[in-house]
Specification:
The chain is of the alpha+beta class. It contains 29 helices and twelve strands. It is about 70% helix and about 5% strand.
Length: about 900
């Protein structure tokens, strides 16, 4: 490898302009690819298979309306007075216009919601009044029916009494008729006898007794006629009574029928009233549960409009979200200030900001101080900028093919700048030493590429391996971040071994300062005289190893204490800069509606079948909302929507605390804890999603993956260093030091970003949880960088020891030849990473801080102090390796020492 790289360095030096033009063409190609193929960068994070993501996936399939992305527009009066009617009208007009924008599904008007709530309260009050009136009417009708029943009973008794009288009268009439008939027969008999006696001559008409008999018969007939007249009159009265009786019974039966019909109708009315009353009570309970929810503040000065999109947040393009912001800003309302939530405004505003540029300036100053020449200082900077340009445009071009998070390209930029400068510096530093030692330019370039270039390739590959190993965590977006960052490392390596030699060739001796060029001959003599000459005085850490060990370990251990209190999560709007619209929106919403409104917990309850009636649906929604409302730390639980098939019910649970708080995390767990209760009571399933739920699930998955990843990294570290240093102790010392530096780096992150220490300096005004993927990504990157510094420091020590120096002399010699470049490289790393602490992206800031702190602790304390001190204590044992292992291990010759010994 060393010989191949030497040949490549010589070729690049001879064909310098071809190499430079080739890289410029590559840049032009990748820029074109980016412009033509760039896709969207998501501002959200998800992990396939976690509970919260499963809920989103299910909603996208069966309840797409519930899976839509959304964002909030916050309106606030500038004078602190309630909105005027004119301001409300203008806001309504703007919100109506937003519905016509691309990807906007609907817009919730806060003032219309307030009107709807007022109407609902009025309708409920009217409903209760109608129920009361209906109860009075039913009571009145019940009394009428009771009175009717009494009247019918009385009428029936009267009819029955009349019937008895009619029956008696009939019997009397029949008896009278019989008596009259008998009397007539008697008269007829008497008259017949009298007439027979007269005809027979027994009697004469003139006889007194005949005359008297005739007179008696006539009187009897007169009585009979009078009696018959009375009987006929009686029968007439009787039949009139019968007719009246029939009419009475007919009226009675009609009354009974009407009474039955009225009673039936009244019974139906009572059932209907009971149903309506049950529905009203259920609706009232639901209204009472949710009436505190509103989008207009109690003082009438703040209103929040929710903008619902047609697609999930992960599928939305930045331009579609910004169209909402741009429209509102283009239509200002007098006296009204407008702010926008993080969901609408979070985007990748640029890969390079003021902080990043400041980091480059600091790196340039460090290079100038080290090299003493502006031209030489500019070479690593140009190489790094070119490398970042190529790798960033490749990444952005791939975003059209692969879904990426907005932090993915930034991580590549961060590493590309730091690694690009360092790797070019390693070669340039070696080349400068060789030039000052009298070596010819082309020979020096070849040797520098074959020696330091070989170390750069080996060190770079360790970083790439560490980054690619992020894929073993099983976390897709984290693995993708490692993949894209490894592209920037690969480009940095290729630039270091091709472009850097080409530029060194074009610059010639100008990579040296004027003073250094004038003293080349004397410097060559001094270098030859002092070559491999043992140091007269040991380094301070070699003279006082135990003090160094105790001091460094104690320092790192103290700094690492906060690490054990680390709480993982994702930043919310409260972590944004105080002058940003996201922070203002978050603060206004928290002040007016409660912090929990910024991070509603989306709860989905799924039934096996649709409920039969609307009353059943109302009762179910009310019961679930009331149960959710009973949980600790719930401000209000609002039924939001029902799927088209009637089986999925969406609830918006608003906590009393912000989305990143511990209490909200506990609430999510409590909601999930209702699973068994809802299963037994309704045979229903419950799922939770939203920012808080996603934070919990992602953080849990990260916590599970971190030990696996850390184990792989440590094993890789030990195996790699056994191969390079042919030692058992050195890998163990290096790995232990790496763990200390990582824990100290992450501990300092916790102290600043979670505890809020020195928040005024780092713009941490609202401390919160540490970004959940930060520990894993920091371990991967810091491992690679730690191996870089370990290689450049310890290989020099090992070579000196192998060539006959005593252990302490070898350690001092290695420090003398490698310390300046490691100090410069680490300073550059810290400045570049540290510049991202003031990035526009609050997700990038803690990453930059963690990497800067990790490099600071690892390079300056572990590699330059702790590691040499421990090796000093171990003495010759530091370089011990079992003979059987020494025989089977290949000689990798990382720094190309064989080339140097051959005089090439």
């Amino acid at each position: 490898m060393a010989k191949l790289l030497q040949a490549l360095g010589r070729f690049s030096a001879k064909r310098a302009w071809y190499v430079i033009i080739a890289w410029l063409l590559i840049l032009a190609t990748t820029v074109t690819w980016m412009v033509l193929g760039m896709g969207k960068l998501s501002t959200s994070m998800s992990i396939k298979g976690v509970a919260a993501q499963k809920v989103i996936d299910q909603l996208q399939t069966s309840f797409p309306e519930a899976a839509r992305g959304n964002g909030s527009v916050v309106f606030h009066t500038a004078n602190g007075q309630p909105f005027t009617d004119e301001q409300k009208s203008q806001i309504n007009a703007d919100l109506t216009a937003l519905k016509s924008l691309d990807a906007v599904a609907t817009v919730v008007n806060p003032f219309e919601l307030n009107t709807t709530k007022s109407d609902a309260a009025t309708k409920i009050a009217d409903g209760y009044q109608k129920i009361a009136d209906a109860k009075v009417t039913i009571a009145t009708n019940l009394q009428k029916i009771a009175d009717g029943r009494t009247a019918l009973v009385s009428a029936k008794k009267q009819l029955q009494a009349g019937q008895v009288k009619l029956d008696a009268a009939k019997k009397q009439l029949e008896a009278s008729s019989a008596q009259l008939s008998a009397a007539k027969k008697t008269l007829d008999t008497q008259e017949a006898q009298l007439n027979g006696a007269v005809q027979a001559g027994y009697k004469q008409e003139t006889d007194a007794d005949v005359i008297a008999a005739r007179q008696a018969i006539a009187g009897g007939r007169a009585q009979y006629a009078g009696g018959m007249a009375q009987v006929r009159a009686g029968w007439k009265a009787y039949y009139q009574g019968v007719a009246k009786e029939k009419a009475g019974w007919s009226a009675y039966k009609s009354g009974v029928a009407k009474l039955k019909s009225g009673a039936a109708k009244l019974a139906d009315a009572k059932v209907t009233l009971a149903t309506k009353e049950t529905e009203l009570i259920a609706g009232d309970q639901l209204f009472q549960t949710t009436k505190t929810f509103g989008l207009v503040s109690k003082d009438g000065t703040t209103a929040v409009s929710s903008v619902m999109f047609t697609k999930p947040t992960t599928d939305l393009e930045t331009s579609q979200k910004m169209a909402v912001v741009d429209y509102i800003k283009a239509h200002p309302i007098a006296g009204v200030e407008t702010e926008f939530s993080k969901e609408l405004t979070q985007s990748l505003d640029g890969l390079m900001g003021l902080g990043e540029i400041l980091g480059l300036v600091i790196a340039g100053v460090v290079l100038f101080v080290m090299l003493g020449t502006l031209i030489g200082a500019g070479l690593p900077l140009l190489a790094a900028i070119l490398g970042v340009g190529i790798s960033a445009t490749i990444t952005m071009g791939l975003s059209g093919i692969i879904a990426m998070n907005s932090t993915t390209p930034v991580l590549g930029v961060m590493l590309g700048l730091a690694i690009g400068i360092d790797y070019a510096l390693f070669l340039l530093n070696r080349h400068r030493k060789q030039l000052k030692a009298g070596m010819k330019i082309k020979d020096s370039i070849g040797l520098a590429t074959g020696t330091s270039g070989n170390a750069v390739v080996f060190a770079g590959l360790t970083v790439i391996i560490a980054l690619l190993a992020l894929n073993i965590t099983g976390i897709e977006f984290l693995g993708l971040m490692g993949d894209m960052a490894s592209i920037s490392i690969l480009v940095g390596i290729l630039l270091a071994i091709t472009l850097t030699p080409a530029m060194m060739s074009l610059l010639g001796l100008r990579v040296l300062s004027k003073k250094e060029r004038n003293n080349i001959k004397q410097s060559a003599k001094d270098a030859k005289k002092n070559a491999d000459k043992p140091e007269k005085r040991h380094a301070l850490v070699v003279r006082h190893p135990w003090i160094t060990i105790i001091g460094t370990v104690a320092t790192l251990a103290i700094v690492a204490i906060p690490f054990f209190s680390m709480r993982l999560g994702l930043p919310d709007g409260s972590s944004e800069p105080t002058d940003s619209t996201q922070y203002k929106a978050y603060t206004l919403i928290s002040k007016s509606f409660g912090a929990g409104t910024n991070g509603q917990v989306v709860t989905v309850v799924t039934l096996p079948n649709k409920l039969e009636t609307s009353l059943d649906e109302t009762k179910f929604k009310t019961d679930v909302a009331l149960r959710l409302d009973e949980l600790k730390n719930v401000d209000v639980a609002v039924p939001a929507a029902v799927s088209s098939d009637g089986t999925r019910y969406l609830f918006q649970v608003i906590p009393t605390t912000g989305p990143a708080s511990v209490e909200t995390t506990n609430l999510v767990n409590d909601i999930r804890g209702l699973s068994g209760e809802l299963k037994s009571k309704y045979n229903a399933e419950i799922g939770v999603t939203g920012l808080a739920a996603m934070n919990i699930d992602i953080s849990q998955r990260m916590s599970e993956a971190l030990p696996i990843y850390l184990t792989v990294v440590i094993l890789l570290s030990i195996l790699l260093m056994i191969l390079v240093f042919r030692s058992i102790a050195v890998p163990v010392v290096a790995s232990a030091g790496f763990l200390l530096s990582v824990m100290a780096g992450l501990g300092s992150v916790v102290a600043v970003y979670q505890w809020g220490w020195a928040g005024w300096l780092f713009d941490v005004h609202d401390p919160g949880p540490i970004m959940n993927f930060l520990p894993t990504i920091a371990i991967g990157i810091l491992f690679g960088l730690a191996m870089d510094y370990q290689l450049f420091l310890a290989t020099g020590m090992r070579e000196a020891y192998v060539h006959g120096m005593k252990p302490k002399q070898a350690i001092t010699h290695g420090l003398r030849i490698s310390r300046p470049v490691v100090l410069a490289a680490a300073s550059i790393m810290v400045s570049v990473f540290g510049s991202f602490v003031f990035s526009h992206s609050t997700m990038i800031r803690p990453v930059g801080f963690a990497l800067a702190a990790g490099v600071l602790f690892d390079a300056f304390i572990v590699r330059l102090l702790l590691m040499p001190a421990l090796l000093t204590v171990l003495g010759r044992g530091a370089w011990w390796l079992p003979r059987w292992l020494d025989r089977i291990l290949p000689d990798v010759d990382v720094e190309g020492a064989k080339l140097e010994r051959k005089g090439h």
